[in-house]
């Protein structure tokens, strides 16, 4: 309900509006009330519908009286036509009045408060002015309608300004679940730095956890106050379930610990359902309509996300899972190999289960500012696969490193989880870097051949406060075998959690080897290494100087490339020239691979 003492906006062209008044040379002074404390003047309150012509006429008359009588006071209130009747009904019910039209005028005592005295509508106010002050108005109907339209436009503008100011004054409500988790200690300083939501947004952070963690939460809240952040309006602790997520704009779901012991994988999966059901119900009931929910951590990230979507269906599109942690680990491992910085490597795509069976896709990966013989401006990039010559490292150490990081991630202090969540939120509110690919766990709608109804990590971009799946990417097709392996566990996790499947059976590929060759897709050779897929461009068949191509299964001498590498270019050229002079009729094509993209063929 609008405050009846909020000043009404004045019409924009009021100064130029003609006013026809019949009044004596000096209006009579208004009557006053004498009390033991002195003299109290009467204040008139004029309220009406913003587009009411009679309100416009009464307002001009009241302005004239206030300008010419120093002791006359007028307070004006306008209401939008859509809310006028409800506002008037509430006002009359509160003061026990009976009035149904616009405007309504009543009188109050200055500096006294209390119940006002109803004067009536437009006719009663006009009669009062004529009897008390000998002033009347003869405004034309056309002018009344013109001013009424201006009043409505001005009222709408003031409402919009008020909403804008209210948005700036009210802080952004950020709720963090499982706030006693280690990741929360690293997350709060990033959120309150102003880099995530911007320097124009103040935050009100609420730490939510069980009653057992209340003491830890109060210590964390006290330390957060000590940060003296200019962007933190308040931080509080909540352990009451009924009050959770009240008016929340952002909900961050961290790793939770189950209260009971579990002995099987199926029990561990099902233990996530009650909490996700509770969170979904409370978010749906208490949170803001445009709430954004982001799920991070290292355990069952995809499963928790899809369960929250199930129990909070009205905001399913605003629930996502963070995949930047796995992406950051892959970029760091590649950077160490290339002796560059992880920030220089972009567009590494994470497919599948963020905290389980996922695949690292390097087909689009690029490296910027790489120190080599080829150098360019800051926007110049080179494909990562063209710079890594050690296939054994890619197929072995790289995979082992990522597997170890995934296994030990739960024992760390949550720094990577916190940074990944904060970066995803920053992209969500301000957009991801133009042209850059970001991995995000979202609900599948059949993109890239992924089955519908599961949360799957895939390439996206953030813009205009939302995310969009990059379905127009080229050469990122995934074979049916790879897709089956990625989606099988996710589908089974969902079925086990909902009770539609009793036992969880991990997907087993046909071949149990460590290096399973996968079907070729559009000129690309894929090599599967356990839970990772590293894709290398297919090299074109080399041709000799005479234009002939080597026949299948012949024309290859494995030892010659090694010999050429040892001899160097000059030694190889001399050997090549000698063989060509001695055996001019023999054409044997030998390919020396200098890079994954460039082959040098020599005719012997």
TrEMBL record:
Ranges where the record places region Disordered: 1-28
Domain annotation Lactate/malate dehydrogenase C-terminal: ranges: 330-490
UniProt record similarity statement: Belongs to the LDH/MDH superfamily. MDH type 2 family.
Alphabetized UniProt keyword annotations: NAD, Oxidoreductase, Tricarboxylic acid cycle
Compositionally biased tracts (Pro residues): 1-10
InterPro entries named in the record: Lactate/malate_DH_C (IPR022383), Lactate_DH/Glyco_Ohase_4_C (IPR015955), Malate_DH_type2 (IPR010945), NAD(P)-bd_dom_sf (IPR036291)
Taxonomic classification: Eukaryota, Metazoa, Chordata, Craniata, Vertebrata
Protein name in the entry: Putative malate dehydrogenase 1B
Keyword Metal-binding set for record: no
Parts of the chain that traverse the membrane: none
SUPFAM superfamilies registered for this protein in UniProt: LDH C-terminal domain-like, NAD(P)-binding Rossmann-fold domains
Record-linked Pfam families: Ldh_1_C
GO biological-process terms attached to the record: malate metabolic process; oxaloacetate metabolic process; tricarboxylic acid cycle
Feature: compositional bias, Low complexity: 11-25
Molecular function GO labels: L-malate dehydrogenase (NAD+) activity
Keyword NAD applies: yes
